[in-house]
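Researcher: Structure prediction, please.
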Amino acid sequence: MAKPVDPFALHACELLSCVGPCVPKRMFGGWGIGTDGMNIALIFDETLFLKSNAETEPQWLAARGRPFLYEFKDGTSGRLNYHTPPDEALESPALMLPWARLALEAAVAARRPKKRAAAAGPRTSKKKKG
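Model: Predicted structure follows.
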């Protein structure tokens, strides 16, 4: 029998529905929230984290968003590109809208193919003599 969806995950889906229909899924002891096949949020320990990236991170940090940090059993730690929205954004979809859009923007950017130029190394151009 499937476990019921956490009430906070349902609330987060309602808040994030301003960018599309959201679906909560169990994920590593927490919840992932997706729209259109893209993960835009995580919930761990009753805390909502929205997708971010290098381009959007300054906006999250300016709003005092905390990054998603985790610790492995061996004591090492890591970080995912997710940040907490401002507390007031948890009050309504209208207040969540700008943050949900940033999360969707980061999710769309993550879906784009990576540029191969960096992996291929610098290119040199050959000029024809003549």
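Model: The two ends are 77 Å apart (CA to CA).
Researcher: Thanks, that helps.
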